[in-house]
Amino acid sequence: MSGFVVEVEEAPGPGVEFERDLDFGVVGVRTRAGQAWLGFDRAALVDSDDGLGRRVGVVVALPASTFGGAHLRVELHGGWRVRERVTLVAGLPGAARPGLEVAAVVAGVGDDAVALDRVAAEREARAARVRFRERRGRERIVGGRAWQPSVDEAAPETSIHSTPHSAAEYSLRRVPVRFVAGLRRLLEDDERILYWVERPPRAEVPLARRIRGGVDRRAAALVLTDRQLVWLVDHMQPDRYLSEWGVDAELIPVERVEDARAESRSDLVRLIVRTPAGARSFDLPAEFAEEVGVMCLLLGRFTPRGARGLPRRTHDPATTPFDRETAERFGALEAADSLLAAADREGPFLAFLFSPGRPGRAEGRALVLRHRTLELLDASGVALAVELASVASIGITLSSLVCRLSAGPGLSVVFPGGLIDRVAAFARTAREAMAAM
Fold first, then answer.
1. Do the beta carbons of residue 70 and residue 40 sit within 8 Å?
2. Domain 166-307 belongs in CATH node 2.30.29.30
3. How is the chain split into domains, by residue range?
4. What is the pLDDT of residues 119-154, one digit of tens each?
5. Full-prediction pTM beyond 0.85?
């Protein structure tokens, strides 16, 4: 849709004052007598920067005065520049061109103002929006995890008025520690959390459900970042000792999301996420239907339809060198080097993850991540190759009991617990390779 969006800051004429109500949305609550009105409300261009950190001022011609906070889609007709300050003139689409002489009085510009025509005004507005995006980009936290304080820093919520964290990051302290520990391993340093929903554990289950069995009483959390949707669920059912056995996680790159919708059942709401490789679903209690609806709206912004032609993030996954120390630690360096050489003979790869032999599995195996495939190697060669295009999500278990990585049909590899950080790093690279498809 063409045009620019402005937010009314001052509506000096007579009209109705509105307030936001939780039940009914925007509601008129009182009349405003106003003052002598010249047919213009004062506004500001949304998401703009005049070069000094302020929004660009706009005077908007209207048939009736609106109210503070109203958002209007307008057309620009001109404006003025006074030294470094720009003020624009706008009107509603289809309305008569506003009188610039009266607009100059409302804007408070003097004889020293340089007039701008429509083309120049639109050029100034576009430049102001570019400056806004650049300023926001510079504010982005890239030197460490945006949501996790370092040892010598305060928690993000203590700096709520001075740091650019999202509301979801400020409230992350309410998520169980075991889930935060999983996020530490699965998120990149500069990855931003946009929204999350927690599923509490079920302490009691109806008798009929217990008889039928199959009741999942585990706690879970659904976390949306600017790069992926992460489903975290307790690895084990809760026991009388409230032991924490780590988490199972499922990762879906946002670039692979084609659609997201909520489906209500008798006692739960199901989030269904469709990808080119198939759909994945996640169940939460029915009382979280509103939160799941918000998650759907946010996921929808990453879909091709929701992006509406906005630039798409491009990925060039970096090659991760193999850490030979991990194989040497298990006395399996020779087997690891043999599999590494076999992987290298088949061409370049992004990451190599070795699982040493141990009781129950005599021979070592390795996962090899290439730009378009994920391969399982053993002493005989490629035991299984999975096209990344056919993978809907990456599964990973981060537990003191077991560490496992799975992707696509039939590919599931168990690793020693001591390699949990290496497995998580491999999963992050695999997610980035999937996003680049």
1. no
2. yes
3. 4-138, 166-307, 324-435
4. 999 999 999 999 888 887 766 555 556 556 544 445
5. no
